[in-house]
């Protein structure tokens, strides 16, 4: 089982859209995928069609009550894709966990005891708090969606520092899978400049595939469907399929298993 954290402490950069659509793309090629919603806003849960009343067991239960992963898994409409949803009580989890010795290791421990999925994708909240630390502690590798805008690189250095601290303290094997440029708009010159800047700074860390700004990607969640299912042929969906293919080549262990 390989665990991918999708993180960036900035909100609205495409984390959830990326997590949902990459998870869907990997399920489509036959992998058993578990998407873990670790954002109290629950956008990944809504976007995949599990509405709030249906979230009978959630990531809160995994973290706070140490309920086994298998008991919190919800099947989705997409074959091969399961979900652990997030509920609003997750917003109190960071405070509730504060005194616990293993507070940053709860998700890692839970996943270590879990079997039955080939790949776990964790959709992180927009902060570098305890929830994201749990994700980074549990992950083999990190996928960073980056919106091409002026302060993009500044936020990234903070994230990379956090990754280093996690590597030093409790997850030495955490790698960075790559940085995916999102909401790319060719008509906007600033987007081009930032993208060139990011590539010259980060080199091969940046995926070749770029996700364009595409209204179909933003419409899909209101239908409770991944864009890849809602309109598999729109430019955004095609880009996410390409990103999934590129991403797989960076997952050596999975490539062998596939
Ligand atoms: P995050 O999880 O980082 O907060 P989201 O994935 O929720 O970001 O994206 C923020 C908003 O932008 C959402 O409304 C989403 O539907 C929309 N969005 C994400 N990616 C794109 C894109 N490539 N083109 C157009 N809209 C997008
Ligand atoms: Mg989100």
N-C termini distance = 12 Å
Total beta strand runs = 8
Strand content: 15-25%
Domain module tally: 1
Mean of pLDDT: 95
- The DSSP helix count reads 12
Strands in their spatial order, largest beta sheet: 3-4-2-5-1-6-7-8
Protein name: AAA family ATPase
Domain AAA: 3-176
Pfam family, one: AAA_31
Organism: Novosphingobium aquae
Task: Tell me about this structure.
The chain is an alpha/beta fold and 258 residues long. The protein has one domain: P-loop containing nucleotide triphosphate hydrolases (Rossmann fold, 3-Layer(aba) Sandwich), CATH 3.40.50.300. The chain is built from 12 helices and 8 strands. An 8-stranded mixed β-sheet has the order 3-4-2-5-1-6-7-8, sandwiched between helices. The longest helix has 18 residues, at 152-169. It binds adenosine-5'-diphosphate (ADP) and magnesium ion. This is AAA family ATPase.
Brief synopsis:
The chain is of the alpha/beta class and 258 residues long. The chain contains twelve helices and eight strands.
Indicate the topology.
Blueprint: E1 2-6, H1 15-28, E2 33-37, H2 43-47, H3 59-64, E3 74-75, E4 81-84, H4 93-97, H5 106-112, E5 119-123, H6 130-138, E6 141-147, H7 152-169, E7 175-184, H8 189-202, E8 206-212, H9 215-219, H10 227-230, H11 235-248, H12 252-257
Parallel strand pairs: 1-5, 1-6, 2-4, 2-5, 6-7, 7-8
Antiparallel strand pairs: 3-4
Bound molecules: adenosine-5'-diphosphate (ADP) and magnesium ion (MG).
């Amino acid at each position: 089982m390989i665990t991918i954290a999708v993180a960036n402490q900035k909100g609205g950069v495409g984390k959830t859209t990326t997590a949902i659509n990459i998870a869907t793309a990997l399920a489509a090629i036959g992998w058993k995928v578990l998407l873990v919603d670790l954002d109290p806003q629950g956008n990944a849960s809504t976007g995949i069609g599990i509405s709030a009343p249906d979230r009978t067991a959630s990531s809160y239960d995994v973290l706070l009550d140490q309920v086994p992963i298998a008991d919190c898994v919800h099947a989705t409409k997409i074959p091969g894709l399961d979900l652990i949803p997030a509920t609003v009580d997750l917003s109190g989890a960071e405070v509730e966990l504060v005194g616990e010795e293993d507070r940053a290791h709860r998700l890692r421990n839970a996943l270590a005891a879990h079997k039955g999925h080939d790949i776990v994708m964790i959709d992180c909240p927009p902060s570098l708090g305890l929830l994201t630390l749990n994700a980074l502690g549990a992950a083999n590798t990190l996928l960073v969606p980056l919106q091409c805008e002026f302060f993009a690189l500044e936020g990234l250095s903070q994230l990379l520092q956090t990754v280093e601290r996690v590597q030093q303290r409790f997850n030495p094997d955490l790698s960075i899978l790559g940085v995916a440029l999102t909401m790319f708009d060719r008509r906007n010159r600033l987007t081009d400049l930032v993208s060139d800047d990011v590539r010259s700074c980060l080199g091969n860390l940046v995926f070749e595939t770029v996700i364009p700004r595409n209204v179909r990607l933003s419409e899909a969640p209101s239908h409770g469907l991944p864009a890849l299912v809602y309109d598999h042929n729109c430019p955004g969906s095609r880009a996410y399929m390409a990103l999934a293919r590129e991403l797989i080549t960076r997952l050596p262990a999975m490539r062998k298993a596939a």
